[in-house]
Design goal:
Elements lengths: L5 H8 L7 H11 L18 H35 L7 H29 L24 H14 L6 H9 L7 E6 L9 E7 L3 E6 L20 H5 L1 E6 L4 E7 L5 E7 L7 H4 L15
Helix pairs in contact: 1-2
Length: about 290
């Protein structure tokens, strides 16, 4: 036996096809001979490649479908992740905050431009500036009057069966004030005193109001011969973010056709979100830390 075929002989000896060593040697001699039935070379025949092309197209189509599925899964996962993120820009709350922030910045820019223009034209701020080209993007008080009308209907339905003031105050403590017409009577910021407007949003610590143009305490001066000019910020009106801390607001409710009751909203006592305030029970008792 050729020593070069020791491994082949050993492997074939474990095969049930061969009964003795002679058959294995004969098989190995035929395997490595040119005249035997087994050839030691590979014969390749030319083909047209149609089957290969079809298999290739099917594989490419399958890969494309898997790739599209992966992209869809990735996009859906990213979308779900964005929705679950509390800082996501697609959330309504965050979108509203961005809108409010951009509106306040726009008002500041326009107020600065009007202040510069008023130095060249002193009579500019004595007229309504809302029709000027630079004031086109400012929110107008007139666009939110219907919102206040809806709140009046809501509060009338809420208080329609209330007979006493104590019951009314208990109802108001858990009511929604978005749409109410508030007036600032006490505030640590002097510029906010006398402001009147419609409530657009209420958080735990702030109230967002839309105020009309040229409307504050300067309209209620007793001495008519004294004229205090309005600032550029007061002439454009728009949004105002007012802190609840050490601030008081007043509003009135028309209970009947002939009776109107005035109420005071204490910011320090109402530093609660409207959602939480609806489920909170307020007890009527005297407090000593309210400064009159």
């Amino acid at each position: 036996m050729d020593r070069a075929n020791v491994i082949e002989h050993f492997l074939l000896s474990r095969c049930s096809r061969f009964n003795d060593s002679g058959q294995i040697l004969q098989f190995l001699e035929q395997r490595y001979s040119y005249t035997g039935p087994q050839k030691n070379y590979l014969v390749l025949e030319p083909t047209d490649g149609s089957q290969y092309q079809e298999e290739t197209k099917q594989q490419e189509k399958k890969d494309a479908e898997e790739g599209n599925k992966f992209l869809l899964d990735k996009n859906s996962l990213a979308s779900a992740t964005r929705k679950d993120n509390k800082y996501s820009s697609i959330k309504t709350k965050n979108e509203f905050k961005n809108f409010t922030r951009n509106s306040l910045r726009l008002q500041e820019k326009i107020a600065k431009k009007l202040h510069k223009l008023s130095k060249k034209n002193p009579g500019l701020l004595t007229k309504d500036v809302i029709d000027l080209k630079i004031c086109q993007g400012i929110l107008r008080f007139e666009d939110f009057i219907e919102m206040h009308a809806l709140w009046n209907n809501y509060i009338k339905e809420l208080l329609q069966n209330c007979k006493t003031v104590d019951v009314i105050t208990a109802k108001l403590s858990s009511a929604e004030f978005v749409g109410a017409y508030f007036k600032v009577t006490h505030c640590t910021c002097p510029d906010n005193i006398g402001l009147e407007g419609i409530v657009l949003w209420e958080s735990q610590t702030y109230i967002l109001m839309i105020i009309p143009r040229r409307n504050n305490w300067k309209d209620n001066i007793i001495k008519q011969n004294i004229q205090i000019p309005y600032s550029a910020k007061e002439c454009i009106g728009g949004l105002r973010m007012i802190s609840k801390k050490k601030t008081r607001f007043t509003f009135n409710i028309e209970v009947d056709e002939d009776s109107v009751i005035d109420f005071e909203f204490l910011g320090d006592r109402m530093s609660i979100r409207s959602l939480d305030r609806a489920n909170k029970k307020f007890k009527s008792h005297n407090v000593k830390d309210i400064q009159l």
